[in-house]
Amino acid sequence: xxxxxxxxxxxxxxxxxxxxxxxxxxxxxxxxxxxxxxxxxxxxxxxxxxxxxxxxxxxxxxxxxxxxxxxxxxxxxxxxxxxxxxxxxxxxxxxxxxxxxxxxxxxxxxxxxxxxxxxxxxxxxxxxxxxxxxxxxxxxxxxxxxxxxxxxxxxxxxxxxxxxxxxxxxxxxxxxxxxxxxxxxxxxxxxxxxxxxxxxxxxxxxxxxxxxxxxxxxxxxxxxxxxxxxxxxxxxxxxxxxxxxxxxxxxxxxxxxxxxxxxxxxxxxxxxxxxxxxxxxxxxxxxxxxxxxxxxxxxxxxxxxxxxxxxxxxxxxxxxxxxxxxxxxxxxxxxxxxxxxxxxxxxxxxxxxxxxxxxxxxxxxxxxxxxxxxxxxxxxxxxxxxxxxxxxxxxxxxxxxxxxxxxxxxxxxxxxxxxxxxxxxxxxxxxxxxxxxxxxxxxxxxxxxxxxxxxxxxxxxxxxxxxxxxxxxxxxxxxxxxxxxxxxxxxxxxxxxxxxxxxxxxxxxxxxxxxxxxxxxxxxxxxxxxxxxxxx
Length: 536
Hints:
2 domains, 18 helices
């Protein structure tokens, strides 16, 4: 078969699968409309997620819509705020190198019309903002990043979104990037003003948003915070088909773990079972498996490791990931931290530094345009005998590297938590999810970091506080089984796109809190107390 025929056949199959999937979503919504009791409280819950899907149902879009249907089934009014083509350019639908190609608004709007058919849907309008547009014309490129308008930080929302879309931290000062910057700022203001109007009109009980970092949802969140409206953000959880909901910033993954919480024997065995598969690379997140295989350390690398008195494993992150906003506490950004590694390595010729790039840097369709590989090849560090680089596309067993290490250095990658679980000393260069508890060495300043790194490198061996490994186990268990809400009763992979889902066959009664612990926690959190933690 030729490639053209295969593309046509696959395209027909994709459209068929997604059409049937949307029919099931509509059928579920129609059934719930018939079963929903009249509301006891007229105040609605508003949902908005313009940055999580285009033409089909992503996991995060599905989590939000199932939650909305569960609320409707309890007689709670729900409003879906929808773009409908009102954003000049959007994060998911733009072509990085060509501003003149518009987003697929027609297909996206058609998807919204299909799945939100039974909901009270408010469509955001296309509005012009000539005064704001005029002000933007006279600004320098650098001024966009910190630009505020009537006290609203439009530039910060735009730059976070643009970094993710462009797959880089350092934005290129060219006309394409300038055009996207302007459009994101103008669109942010459009969302902010219209969402503010909706809040003032409806006085909602709560607002539920995806992520909260991309400019559409960030603008909506800011409008809520200004008015004291309960605002909830959500992201994918750590286990398959799970979600994390919070009244904080979902990408920071804030958790409150009681100091009295300890793992009992059953919990310990349950966690060990999970870790036995994770340490083989057999895990997914948001439908993506980062490790299709794991290779043992090659003989030449082992031989080189044996020539040095100590091994330091250095694990990086994806520079454009939305978590980086929270991570940049000690250093300006991850590459500043790597520059610190570069200056440290020459003064410790007895130590072998192995720098491991994050596998997500080379994920198909999401390849980083400012990669650790590019930094390494253009840096003097690549000429040092005591530095080895392992690329994102090399499926080397990182856990084997950790087990041999004298010290593990991370920026904010989850591999730091895993290293702590293995009993290894970890030095964090940025704020990570797991640094909420004492799981790693995490200095309070860059100066303290330098002093601590030198002390750890000089030590013949490192005595890691016993609470680090214990807290790592407490943290991971809590993240897996207390804050990751399970939607697997409702969803399965759609078999077309990775990370996209369709409905399973289930009775709508399964969305009732009496029949689902996930829905009980969600509804209580949204309507009552803002807590989205499962009982342990």
